[in-house]
């Protein structure tokens, strides 16, 4: 069984510019299951970074530890050089997070939820009001702003979660499966918003299962398998022209030719 590693008290310095996000020795165990082991990655500022991996690879656990949502057993993360776990109050204003599966305050309306997120960040109420209207509009929720989040569909919930991550214009966005359940038109709008944000100097880190999307949208990609980082770099470095094929190779996916022989429409 993998032992929890002894954390060295001081992570080694990085050469060059300060990464937007750096993880160092991240480790998490749930009972006997090691969900994430020795995860170390430096994400350059201004990059559009995709994190991919099969179901259960450890993406959500890693992103949760890297953003202050889940305490690591060992290791830590730095946002713009500031330790997420040692100085959370300094890190939170720099971060916009769309967690996967974390419950929102769904007895608020969509507009109230964005407003709440903005005011919680100490923003000017007039600015919050303007941005709330703009975000609802651009995310196709203008007619649903007065509806309770509890009554939103899965895709609408994803979009309102994204709006709460964007409202304070953070320098680093960490989005767990931002396109899941989102319709193609809204997904197009979200892609445009994120591309524009990166063009303006922001950093986006997103997890996804959709390889074509990562290949088209991202500048860099990290591949996780079974709790470990197995490859990281630019899309060209990792994918070599076919990210899907390289991914299958890295995670050891085998083609399955046999089907479920019993799965036939029953007659009668
Ligand atoms: N709270 C928890 N309690 C117990 N096991 C957990 C918990 N959270 C995650 N795990 C386990 O840790 C491993 C990594 O899970 P994680 O959700 O990080 O994977 P993932 O790559 O995000 O998967 P997916 O692509 O399916 O969302 C899995 O084996 C999962 O069962």
Automatic annotation (TrEMBL):
Keywords: Antibiotic resistance, ATP-binding, Nucleotide-binding, Transport. It is found in: Cell membrane. GO terms for biological process: response to antibiotic. Coiled coil: none annotated. It comes from the Bacteria. It is a peripheral membrane protein. GO terms for molecular function: ATP binding; ATP hydrolysis activity. Residues 21-251 form the ABC transporter domain. GO terms for cellular component: plasma membrane. This is ABC-2 type transport system ATP-binding protein. It comes from Salana multivorans.
């Amino acid at each position: 069984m993998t032992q929890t590693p002894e954390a060295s008290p001081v992570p080694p310095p990085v050469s060059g510019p300060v990464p937007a996000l750096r993880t160092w020795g991240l480790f998490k165990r749930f009972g006997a299951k090691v969900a994430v082991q020795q995860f170390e990655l430096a994400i350059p500022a201004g990059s559009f970074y995709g994190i991919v991996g099969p179901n259960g690879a450890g993406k959500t656990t890693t992103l949760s530890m890297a953003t202050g949502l889940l305490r690591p057993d060992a290791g830590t993360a730095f946002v713009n050089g500031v330790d997420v776990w040692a100085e959370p109050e300094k890190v939170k204003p720099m971060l916009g997070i769309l967690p996967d599966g974390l419950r929102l305050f769904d007895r608020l309306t969509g507009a109230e939820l964005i407003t709440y997120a903005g005011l919680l960040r100490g923003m000017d109420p007039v600015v919050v009001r303007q941005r709330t209207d703009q975000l609802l509009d651009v995310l196709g929720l203008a007619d649903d702003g007065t509806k309770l989040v509890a009554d939103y569909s899965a895709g609408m919930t994803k979009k309102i979660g994204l709006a709460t991550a964007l409202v304070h214009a953070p320098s680093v966005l960490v989005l767990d499966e931002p396109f899941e359940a989102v319709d193609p038109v809204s997904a197009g709008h979200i892609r445009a918003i994120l591309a524009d944000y990166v063009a303006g100097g922001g950093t986006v880190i997103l997890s996804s299962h959709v390889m074509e999307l990562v290949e088209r949208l991202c500048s860099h990609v990290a591949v996780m398998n079974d709790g470990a980082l197995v490859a990281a770099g630019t899309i060209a470095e990792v994918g070599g022209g076919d990210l899907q094929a390289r991914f299958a190779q890295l995670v050891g996916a085998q083609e399955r030719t046999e089907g479920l022989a019993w799965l036939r429409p029953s007659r009668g």
